[in-house]
Design a protein that fits this description.
The complex is a heterodimer of chains A (342) and B (392). In chain A, 52% of the residues lie in helices and 15% in strands. Chain A is α+β, with helices and mostly antiparallel strands and 342 residues long. A 4-stranded antiparallel beta sheet of chain B has the order 2-3-7-6, with no helix packed on it. Classes of the chains: A alpha+beta (342), B alpha+beta (392). Chain A: Belongs to the acyl-CoA dehydrogenase family.
Chain lengths: 342, 392
């Protein structure tokens, strides 16, 4: 029994943390989030150089990167490409991605029908004769990718972004926006059966949980730093248990979330029989904990934590994005309950 | 990262499971849940059986009667007990607190005399730390020990001592130097509970069970050599005890919680007192899933903490964290179970599930108080883990 990342994985974590902290300090992150596209257009080739986009990374290697890109949000479609689209890539797409030439996402949700990743019953986007027609909504990073993986009752298809009509939304989380996408007979290439969505969902849930752990960690770090230094009544506010005990509670939630997220990552990596349950549990707990951590951090900061100027709301909004992704935590709990009780 | 058992671990698990099935009283696994802690003499005999089979002191060095195995085996042991709902050895204070402290601080003669009967369950231990005037503030204790010839003469009162009414020995923190600063005036004695002048009065808990006690010491003569460490080392020795208490606790607690979650699942799937099945209510389903997730999160936190322990040799802060989270989970879960049976849960004769949930719910209120109150644990996390300024 061994519950530690390997030395190589820890090294990868160290590099990632350093790279992200240096490239995206809080000021630059805010500027990018408020920019026209919400993305850092130059970073993608750098990610390829560093090996982050390699097809031969294991999921545990990627796990380290998902966590670190939560701790310092990466304004690029890394989650969308690696967690949502890449699981169904063929050799060619994998090679292109690894070389830094391809950013991708998954277009699954449609208006007016259930929008979970596995809710395929009501899909009306259709493929016929290698062409796709239909409408997708809530496509993560839809405006910032080269390729869309599209769900249809016939299976999963790759469509060039240039062949689709993409309408970006302004979004609460400036660095992970959502878009509507229309396909009017767009040329499409088959990638996988619909059943591949199960594997995509497990990865996406685990990745969301890992990212949420990074978000919660940064929120706690900010809270602790502030509680150590901010003085009121002549003392650092962290001396008051009304503040310090909240920080302790967040620490507990964070460690629980981290344990579940690592468990889920390991299950996905090894194809463990409990992967489905582990991913549901991790996603529900970690994303909820990240929201809570940010809310407590905002509270602990007082007025400054409530300003646009302070970085905390960027994390809060990412946490909310992750919590809402593929259904609120009660959705995952309902599915777990079915597994436990029925 | 790999959570699977190694071949040796898997073999140990299989052997233990078959041993338990062969040695537990017939029908044990299927028996109805019971309230309370059961028959002490049965538990003592059971402890002896576990000892004879080699399942006690798994992580202790072989020279002290243990098997010198890694803590992973202790974790497997606790998991397997919980899975079959089998009772643990009743000498938990001795095994988890007194024993490791004696190994760390005791003389050869003390180790020779004390450790074997502790492992076998022949001698039961209790803990004399808290006093009426000093609970969380351990170093404020006033029970005194004064040297008189070859003996310490002990006077004072201890409280909340589990098992004291069954115990043969007590690990006792006493003040030996009233002039020294608070922490420096303490010493750590090992006291024979059968000595003249030791009086134990059971305290009845809110469950109705007399699980813990007051201990009164009146001119109790304790041999001079029955001390762990030097006079004045009491605080340091006590910290060894508490480190071990929290270091090994997480697995035992979580294994217990897993059993309780499984019971909750069983409860909601059956028709309740009103004929309805709680599992048909979406609010109930959400709550059950939440508790299952919480339990898993603590399980894997233990594994992470175990990995850190194997790497560094020192238990991490997760011990405090798991105890804190477990106690609140157990309170939430048992109160939830009680709420599912409504007013029926208030009947104690002919009680639903033999009063299992009534007992568990009331007993759980002690969880956030015993072995470090939640307030103290939050302070420990804030100060020692997060580095926030000390309030005291």
């Amino acid at each position: 029994m061994d519950f530690a990342f390997s030395a190589e994985q820890e090294q990868l974590r160290g590099f990632a943390r350093e790279f992200l902290a240096e490239r995206y300090d809080d000021v630059r992150l805010a500027a990018l989030a408020d920019s026209e596209t919400g993305t850092d257009g130059d970073v993608w080739p750098r990610l390829a150089e560093m090996g982050w986009l390699d097809g031969d990374l294991t999921f545990l290697d990627q796990a380290v990167l998902f966590e670190e890109t939560g701790r310092r949000p990466l304004p690029a479609p890394f989650f969308s490409t690696m967690a949502l689209a890449a699981p169904v890539f063929d050799e060619k797409l994998r090679a292109e991605t690894g070389a830094g030439g391809l950013r991708a996402t998954l277009a699954w949700a449609e208006p007016g029908v259930p929008q979970g990743l596995l809710d395929t019953a009501g899909l009306s986007t259709r493929e016929a004769d290698g062409r796709i027609t239909g409408q997708k909504v809530l496509v993560p990073d839809g405006h910032a990718v080269d390729l869309l993986v599209v769900t249809t009752p016939e299976g999963l298809y790759a469509v060039d972004a240039a062949d689709a009509t993409i309408t970006p939304h302004t979004a609460i989380d400036g660095t992970r926006r959502l878009a509507d996408v229309r396909f009017d007979g767009a040329p499409a290439r088959r990638l996988a059966d619909l059943s591949a969505l199960t594997a995509i969902r497990e990865r996406a849930q685990a990745a969301a949980a890992l990212e949420a752990v990074g978000v919660a960690q940064r929120a706690l770090d900010l809270l602790v730093e502030y509680a150590r230094t901010r003085q009121q009544f002549g003392k650092p506010i962290g001396i008051y248990q009304a503040v310090s005990h909240k920080a302790s509670d967040i620490y507990v939630r964070l460690q629980e979330a981290r344990s579940l997220a690592y468990w889920a990552a390991w299950c996905v990596d090894t194809g463990d029989a409990l992967a489905g349950r582990a991913c549901l549990a991790a996603k529900a707990h970690a994303t909820e904990s990240a929201v809570l951590a940010c809310e407590q951090a905002i509270q602990g900061h007082g007025g400054i934590g409530f300003t646009w100027e302070h970085v905390l709301h960027r994390y809060y909004k990412r946490a909310q994005w992750l919590q809402a992704f593929d259904g609120a935590p009660r959705t995952q709990r309902a599915e777990l309950a079915a597994a436990l009780l029925d | 990262m790999d959570f699977r058992d190694s071949p040796e671990e898997a073999e140990f698990r299989t052997e233990l499971r078959s041993w338990l099935l062969a040695n537990l009283p017939e029908g044990w696994a299927d028996r109805a849940p019971e309230a309370g802690r059961g028959d002490f003499e049965f538990l003592r005999a059971w402890g002896g059986k576990l000892y004879d089979a080699g399942y006690v002191g798994l992580t202790w060095p072989a020279e002290f009667g243990g098997r010198g195995l890694s803590p992973v085996y202790q974790a497997i042991y606790l998991e397997e007990l919980a899975r079959l709902n089998a009772p643990n050895h009743p000498g938990v204070i001795g095994l988890n607190m007194a024993g490791p402290t004696i190994i760390a601080w005791g003389t050869d003669a003390q180790k020779q005399r004390l450790l074997k009967p502790l492992l076998s369950g022949e001698e039961i231990w209790c803990q004399g730390f808290s006093e009426p005037g000093s609970g969380s503030d351990l170093a404020a204790g006033r029970t005194s020990a004064v040297l008189d010839g070859d003996h310490w003469v002990v006077n004072g009162q201890k409280v909340w001592s589990s098992y004291a009414h069954k115990a043969d020995w007590c690990i006792l923190v006493v003040r030996t130097d009233p002039e020294a600063p608070k922490h420096a005036g303490l010493s750590y004695l090992v006291v024979d509970m059968h000595s003249p002048g030791v009086e134990v009065r059971p305290l009845v808990q809110i469950t109705g069970d007399p699980e813990f006690n007051e201990i009164f010491f009146t001119d109790v003569r304790v041999p001079k050599e029955s001390i762990l460490g030097a006079p004045g080392d009491g605080w340091k020795v006590a910290m060894t005890t508490l480190l071990h208490e929290r270091g090994t606790l997480g697995f035992a607690l979580t294994a217990g919680l897993e059993g309780t979650v499984n019971r909750l699942i069983e409860l909601v799937r059956q028709p309740g007192p009103d004929g309805r099945r709680p599992a048909d209510d979406p609010v109930v389903r959400d709550a059950v899933a939440r508790e299952w997730i919480e339990m898993q999160s603590l399980r894997f936190t233990n594994y992470r903490s175990l990995t850190a322990l194997l790497e560094t040799g020192v238990p991490g802060p997760e011990g405090s964290m798991v105890k804190l989270a477990w106690s609140e989970a157990n309170q939430r879960l048992t109160a939830f179970a009680q709420s599912l049976i409504g007013l029926t849960g208030q009947i104690s004769d002919d009680a639903w599930w033999n009063g299992y949930w009534q007992y568990q719910q009331l007993r759980s209120r002690g969880n956030t108080i015993e072995a470090g109150t939640s307030e103290i644990l939050r302070n420990i996390i804030a100060e020692r883990v997060l580095g926030l300024p000390k309030g005291r």
